[in-house]
Specification:
Largest sheet: 3 strands, mixed
Number of helices: 30
Strand order of the largest sheet: 5-6-7
Structural class: mainly alpha
Radius of gyration: 44 Å
Distance between the termini: 158 Å
Shape: globular
Helix content: 55-70%
Strand content: under 5%
Oligomer: single chain
Length: about 675
């Protein structure tokens, strides 16, 4: 900074103030100075920035100051002499400026550098729009080329999500929220995937923070994921052998598949051996050796749940999800809802099962919004097939999390191709969502509830019984709602009704909801007595539909473990072994690799040596028949993929032994003793 600028800044021509002065000396100086000088006003600091001439050379300033001093010391002269001196000053100043500009190669015009910079920027970004000869930088700050990157990005987003509503040329962002009006039904929000965020909203951040401090004493160095945050005691993930590949892309959707490496397949075969051994210790040792083997974690989680260790069961599910999330493809986006997984591939089923059990555990803790987001994630993986039938529980979490607008929108958009009104849970829950949403929707809520009661009359008595409410005698005795009149309804419909009542009854216990239900029940009775044609139409639909539930519904019932809904399972399913790591696999499964054949072993009868001994005592014993029976059993085990080893069915061996004992005892005839009197006569 030049000396002139410093003087302007401090308001003093002398720079002596820069030297440090003691307080005593300052007082002496002030006393000796005599009359006080007028205080100079401080110069504006921003004047230094707005000087048009810029920072001039210090030599020019010093010469001007010397000449000013000479003028002050010399006597006053005529006006002509003053004009000549001013001209000399200007000439000298101009000469100095020209020399300075020539040395630094700077033009006289100080705006040339700025213009050059603007020209360089315009070459890269393009010129700003000009209106009436004036550059418009506030109103029309848009590139002349309409096909820029921002417009292209906006068009791509509008193709996916649809444009925002526009009213009178102004974007209407207040009347229609972006989160409901434009986003996809299956898109999720990252912040709602963390149950801790929901716990903070319910109980406060201090409670959640203290709980984390109590559990996690050491710092976690692993990277957190969207679905699960790793715990400090988890081992670091290395190469697990689990990966994901992109299969194809159709209509804006990407289809992915999980793949198992050769090493992972070997661990999978060891897992099958551990399951067949019926020994949990073998499974635990396998998890200790391979802590991120997915099926082992899922199976061991079920073992912990049966032993009522829910904390360990939840942790094992979270560990499986953390491993699978780390193995996702780089293009697999959890938030958009456009990534698909085919449930027919056995490698993909683990993600469905882990997400289902994870959301059930989270929902039991009260994090209903997080469970709803996981439901959307599960449904987005295969919305057409819905292999776990997540629609049977999605309404429950939407009602409990008070996401009424989302449930209504889902029903309105999917009713045409999913027939959601034919599911008891959606028929009643959507009416309840209209009831809670606003006062204007009460008419719509009444209409939908009456139609639901006419379509599914068996729900009323079971729902009131579950809520511990005594029904009105007129309602209980009416043949339309009585329990005896619903014995002829299809078994599949009974299972759906039982599932809805057992899961959703808590949402109907509020007094205002019960009052609303009572009023509409009275209206339904009037319509039934007046022989409304809608009653007969719905009755025909009941008899023609719900003849047999699809396989995904049975899979949902088994995984939900609701006893009331498991009563009417078909016989073919009740006799089929249910595997926890793969319940009810699809009949059209696409198998990528098979288990290798085991080494041939001598097949013995399941009953053992003792049973063979007793069988050999029978008159009808045939060794060839026994050999054929053993060969048939061996072939049956091989056809089933080797899931039933020799020592697996101990119960079957015991039954065979008991049958042999029964046959032996039935064929053994006791010898009758001879008459003793005849022997005595011969002796005599």
């Amino acid at each position: 900074m030049s000396s002139r600028a410093v003087r302007k800044l401090h308001g003093d021509s002398d720079l002596a103030f820069l030297a440090p002065v003691d307080d005593d000396k300052e007082s002496d100086i002030s006393e000796d100075d005599g009359p006080s000088q007028p205080i100079k006003t401080k110069a504006n600091l921003f004047e230094l920035l707005g000087d048009d001439e810029g920072i001039v050379d210090d030599d020019i300033e010093e010469e001007e100051e010397k000449e000013d001093k000479k003028e002050n010391t010399e006597p006053k002269s005529t006006g002509a002499v003053k004009k000549k001196r001013k001209k000399k000053k200007k000439k000298k100043a101009n000469e100095k400026k020209e020399q300075r500009n020539e040395e630094n190669n700077v033009d006289e015009n100080p705006e040339d550098e700025i213009d050059a910079s603007i020209r360089e920027v315009n070459k890269i970004l393009g010129p700003l729009p000009v209106t009436n000869g004036i550059m418009n930088t506030e109103e029309n700050n848009v590139d002349e080329n309409p096909e820029d990157e921002i417009d292209a990005s906006i068009r791509e987003v509008n193709k996916i999500l649809g444009p925002l509503p526009v009213t009178n040329g102004i974007m209407n962002t207040e009347e229609v929220p972006v989160s409901i009006g434009t986003r996809s039904l299956l898109s999720i929000e990252h912040k709602h995937l963390n149950p801790d965020n929901e716990m903070r909203r319910i109980f406060g951040s201090q409670v959640v923070r203290s709980e984390h401090r109590r559990k996690e004493r050491r710092k976690n160095i692993q990277k957190s994921g969207w679905l699960v945050s790793p715990r400090p005691n988890w081992p670091p993930i290395s190469k697990t052998g689990l990966s994901m590949t992109l299969g194809s892309s159709k209509n804006g959707y990407q289809y992915f598949n999980f793949e198992h490496s050769k090493e992972y397949q070997k661990v999978e075969f060891q897992f099958l051996d551990a399951v067949e051994s019926y020994n949990p210790s073998n499974l635990i040792s396998l998890v200790n050796m391979h802590p991120y083997h997915i099926n082992s974690l899922l199976q061991l989680s079920e073992v912990c749940k049966m032993s009522e260790d829910l904390q360990m069961a939840t942790e094992l599910i979270e560990k499986a999800l953390y491993c699978m999330e780390g193995s996702l493809h780089t293009l697999f986006n959890l938030a958009q809802g456009t990534c698909r997984l085919d449930y027919r591939h056995p490698e993909n089923r683990a993600l469905f099962l882990a997400l289902f059990r994870h959301l059930v555990y989270i929902g039991n803790k009260g994090s209903y919004r997080t469970a709803l987001e996981l439901c959307k994630l599960l449904l987005g993986l295969d919305p057409n097939g819905d292999p776990i039938c997540i629609l049977l529980m999605m309404d429950f979490y939407a009602i409990r999390s008070e996401q009424y607008d989302y449930l209504i929108r889902l029903y309105n958009e999917w009713e045409s191709h999913k027939n959601l009104s034919q599911l008891p849970n959606f028929a009643f829950s959507t009416a309840l969502a209209h009831f809670h949403s606003n006062e204007d929707g009460r008419k719509k809520a009444d209409s939908m509830l009456q139609e639901a009661l006419i379509m599914f009359p068996s729900v009323l008595i079971g729902l009131l019984d579950k809520c511990s409410i005594q029904p009105d005698p007129l309602v209980a005795s009416h043949p339309f709602f009585s329990a005896s009149s619903h014995t002829s309804q299809p078994v599949a419909l009974t299972q759906l009704v039982s599932l809805f009542i057992a899961r959703n009854f808590s949402s109907w216990k509020q007094p205002e909801v019960m009052g609303w239900l009572e009023r509409n029940v009275q209206e339904v009775l009037k319509r039934v007595d007046n022989k409304d044609p809608l009653v007969q139409s719905f009755r025909k639909k009941q008899l023609s539909r719900y003849q047999k539930a699809p396989r995904n519904v049975y899979r949902h019932l088994i995984m939900s473990e609701i006893k009331e809904a498991l009563i009417g399972l078909p016989v073919e399913l009740s006799n089929t072994p249910i595997l926890s790591y793969d319940p009810l696999p699809p009949l059209d499964s696409i198998v990528s690799y098979t288990r290798p054949a085991r080494q041939s072993r001598v097949q013995h009868d399941q009953s053992g040596a003792l049973a063979s001994f007793f069988q050999s005592l029978l008159p009808s014993y045939n060794p060839d028949a026994v050999a054929d029976n053993n060969n048939a059993r061996g072939q049956g085990r091989g056809a089933e993929g080797g899931y039933m080893p020799e020592h697996a069915n101990i119960r079957e061996g015991i039954d065979a032994l008991m049958n042999s004992m029964r046959d032996l005892l039935a064929n053994v005839q006791s010898l009758q003793p001879e008459d003793d009197n005849e022997e005595l006569e011969e002796v005599d």
